[in-house]
Write a structure and sequence with these properties.
Blueprint (H helix, E strand, L loop, with lengths): L9 H8 L10 E3 L6 E3 L9 E2 L2 E2 L8
């Protein structure tokens, strides 16, 4: 039966495992109204539109 030569420390074990759980970037899509990048299935913060209709009133910048 195979036996490890030496015990691997928790720090070394965790350092090796840390690279497997990297977070992925969120799925960004372009807003069809203004073209800003938006998280999918959420209202656009730039223009306030979602699914072709305005759901948030956004103040105009002058």
């Amino acid at each position: 039966m195979a036996v490890p030569r030496a015990r691997i420390s928790k720090q070394r074990r965790n350092k090796r495992r840390s690279s497997h759980w990297k977070l992925a970037l969120p799925g960004l899509v372009k807003c069809p109204k203004c073209g800003e990048p938006v998280l999918s299935h959420r209202a656009c913060k730039a223009c306030g539109y979602y699914a072709g209709r305005q759901v948030i009133k956004v103040a105009e910048e002058n």
